[in-house]
Amino acid sequence: MLTVTFPAAAFGTNCYVIAPGPGEECLVLDPGIGVEETLREVLTEHRLRPAAVLLSHGHVDHVYSVTPVCGGELAAYIHTDDRYRLEDPLGSSSLGEALVGMLEQQFGTQATWREPERVVEVRDGETLSVAGIDLEVLHAPGHTEGSVMFAVDAVPDGVPDEAQVDRTLLTGDVLFAGSIGRTDLPGGDHEAMLRSLRDVVAPRPDSSLVLPGHGPATTLAREKASNPYLKDVT
């Protein structure tokens, strides 16, 4: 599958564009702060047409551009337990006062939010078939109440054979290369995160390519062998 990754303008959030191939409909995962111009360039270069926006969770650094990307026509998909965050992801009750202060310092007080017109709530174990791609929803709370991962039985074009992967796991802020998402923000729960790592992440096949919400790609085999958080729960 065609997969393009680029960072947002703040917090290094990875925005993913996924499609069966050039000239097709595509999915946009986690359109964060300041991604609109780069996203337009990616869509134009590969002749892609957005079909939906997927959100791994409701933090502002992953959802800030969802409304302009959806444009009133496309649906934004988010887990039921994080649906409330789309009402005000800039609020301190959702993000935490410290991070709200950082946003105001970096972007001034002009940051505004408008809730997307079409929101589809997803649940654990559900299979989404959008833009010619099937994704399994894996609820993995801990970073937020409604954090999810998306599992796809395909890998991005260009992944070398020596990577020994045959499927993809879009992990949001559940699992990073060598680390995990923080659990000290409102709605975070460290014990829930450990359960998610043990019961949701660890059982996934080692042959999974991991595309995280921040930082570089990795593989689940590598994380099971070296990530201290995964090693602790397995």
Structural notes for this entry:
By secondary structure, the protein is α/β, with parallel strands linked by helices. The chain has a single domain, classed as 4-Layer Sandwich (Metallo-beta-lactamase, Chain A), CATH 3.60.15. 26% of the residues lie in helices and 28% in strands. The protein has 8 helices and 14 strands. It has a 6-stranded mixed β-sheet with strand order 1-2-3-4-5-6. A 6-stranded mixed β-sheet has the order 7-8-9-10-13-14. Strands 11-12 form a two-stranded antiparallel sheet. The radius of gyration is 17 Å and the shape is globular. The model has no long low-confidence stretch (mean pLDDT 92).
Features:
alpha/beta, 6-stranded mixed sheet, globular, 26% helix
Enumerate how many helices there are, as a single number: 8
Could you tell me the CATH topology label: Metallo-beta-lactamase, Chain A
CATH architectural group: 4-Layer Sandwich
Share of helix, binned: 25-40%
**Can you identify the CATH class?**
Alpha Beta
Q: Estimate the mean pLDDT confidence.
A: 92
Q: What is Rg?
A: 17 Å
Largest sheet composition: 6 strands, mixed
The low-confidence parts are none
Please count the beta strands (DSSP E, at least 2 residues each): 14
Structural domain count? 1
Q: What series of H and E elements makes up the topology? A: EEEHEHHEHHEEEEEEEHEEHH
Protein name: Glyoxylase-like metal-dependent hydrolase (Beta-lactamase superfamily II)
Cofactor: Zn(2+)
GO molecular function: hydrolase activity; metal ion binding
Organism: Marihabitans asiaticum
Briefly say what this structure is:
By secondary structure, the chain is an alpha/beta fold. The chain has helices spanning 36-46, 60-63, 66-70, 92-95, 97-107, 190-201, 220-226, 228-233, and strands spanning 2-7, 14-19, 25-29, 49-54, 75-79, 119-122, 127-130, 133-139, 148-152, 167-172, 175-176, 179-180, 208-212, 218-219.
